[in-house]
C-alpha cells in the first residue's frame, strides 16, 4: 500500500472485519518493533487467569511467521522498518535499513537512537480500542499523557539507564567489598600463623581504609607491591652446613690416606661387599672366582682377608657417613640457595655462570654417589674436590648471603600476604572504574527525579492549554471543558467541568465523550512531533453526528501540514472528511473470508466527484440564473478547473513517488504557480517519463488546453457564456484520466 506522503487525508473504509485494524496494527508494530503499547506495558502470561479475553494475536492466520514492513521517506532519504512475528504473535526480530541521500543503504540499530523516545512521545498511530483497553486507571492515564508530553517515554528510558548503571556500579562496589573482606580474612590468618612460628619477627599490620582509591599507592604503603613465589627460608646456617659437610668429607679422605697404602686397602670396600655377596650364596662352590683355581677354602680365605681390614673400618665408616651427610646438604641446603636465587622476581647479583657451574659439580658428584653408594672411591673424592673449588669461594659465600636476604622471614611473610590478596587486586582492577561511579549514579538518580518533577509540572501547564483547545473543539457543544491536568509520579489528576462550571468525573462521560477526551491530547501534541503522518483507527467510536463533523474539522486542520490516514467503517466520517479536505484520497478495503487476504481498491477520487457535481449542476439547472453570485456556467467551469488542478496535483505526487523524489518539494514548485496554465507548464517540467512514453501533462493539455484560461477565469468570477458545457465536462474527465492513469 503506497500512501501519498504530501499533506492531506487518506481514507480507508470498509465494514467490520475487513482488515482496517490489521493494517493499522501492522504499521504500529513495524514502527515500534513490538506488539506491545508504545510504552513498556507488561504483557500478561498466556497461562494467567487474568489474560485479557480480547487481546490481539499479531500473527497471520496459520502462518509460521509474519512480516510487517513500513517505509518512511524524507526528501531523498528512506527508512525501511521490518519485523518478523512468530506464531505466538510476538516480534522475533526488528530491522531498520536507512537509504541515505547518496543512495547507500546501511543498517541502523534503533536502540542506539532516540527512535523509541519519538514513538513514545509522539505516537503516530492511534487506535481507540487499544487506548481504551489500556487506560483503565489513573496511573494508566498519567502514563498516556506523560508520553504525549514527549516526557514519559524519555524519562522512562533515562531512569532505566540510570538504574542500570547504578546497579552495575553497586554490583562492582559489592564485588570489591566482598574481595576486601576475603583478603582481610586471609591476611589475618597469615599474620596469626607466622606470628606463632616466628615470635621474634614483627611487621606492621596492613591498613584497610574505607575505600581504596589508589591501589598501587596502597600496595606500596603496606609493602605489598612486590609479588613472587613463596621461597624456602635461607639463613647463614645454609652456608655453614655446606661448608662443614665438605670439610668433614675432606678430613675423612685424609684419614684413609694416612693408612699404609696397599691394593687390599684400596679395595677394602669392594672386598667387604664381595664377601657379603658370598655369604648370601647357599653353595659358593670350590672354584675361586678370582683365579679360577680349585680351592675349596676360598670363601674362608676371603673372610680372613676381610677381617684383616678391620683396622680400616672406622675410617671407611666415617668417609661413608660424611659423604651421606654431604649428599643431604646438597639435596637440601644447596638446592634451597639455588632455588631462591633463580626464583627471585628481582634481578640478582650472583652470576648465572656461577650457579650453572656449581649445579654441574653437584650433579656429577650425586651421579657417582647414586651409582656406587656413599663409598670413598677415587671418583667420589675427585668430584668432592671439584665441588669444593666452587663452594669454598667468596663468590659462593656472597651468593648465600644474597639468597638469605631474598628469603628473609619478613620478606616471605609479605610475599605470603601479597599472594593472599591477588584475587582482591584482580577484582579491584576489573571493577574500580565502574564502582567509583556508585555515588555519582545515586546522586544522578536523585537529580533525575527532581528534574522529572519540575518538567512534569511545567509541561502539564502548557499541555492543559493545548489539550483544552482540542477538547473544546470536540466537546464544546456538550459544554465539557478541560480545566486542569496535574501529573504526579503515580497518577493523573484531571479536572473537567460541565456547562454550569460544576466538576465532572471522567466516569460520568459517555462512551463517545470518553473517546473524544482520549483523542484530544494526541491531536493536541501531534504537530510537535517528528512524524509527517498520523494514523487513526476507528477514531469515531460511539460518536454522534456532530462529534463526527467536529473531528473531521480538526483532522482537516491537521492534514494541512501532514498526511492523515483514517481507517473507518463509518460512512459519515468519510463524507465529512471529503467535504472538508480538497486533498483527500479514498480506498475501499475488503477481506477474503476464506483466505484472509486483504484487498485495497481506490474509490472515487475527488476530481471525479467534482466532475460529477458539475454534471449534476448542468443537468439540474439548464436555465441561466439571474440572482446567483456566480452563474451556473461559472460554477461548473470552476469545478472543472478544481478537478484538473487536483488531477495535476495527483500526477505530480505519483511521479515523485515513482522517481524517488521529494514529494513536498515537487508540490511546492507546482503550488508556486498561480494560474492553471502556469501550473501545467511547471508540471510538464517536473514529471519525467521514459523515452517513447506519452507525457500525461502534454496529453491532458492537448485535450483541454483551449479551455484552461476560460476555466481559470471562471473561478475568479469572470463573465462567461454557457456554450456546450457537457462537452467541456467530458473533455475535463478525459484530461483528468490522462493525468492520473499513467
From TrEMBL:
Residues 3-573 form the RecF/RecN/SMC N-terminal domain. The keyword Coiled coil applies. Pfam families: SMC_N. Keywords: Coiled coil, DNA damage, SOS response. The keyword Coiled coil applies. Residues 309-336 form a coiled coil. It comes from the Bacteria. This is AAA family ATPase. It comes from Streptomyces violaceorubidus.
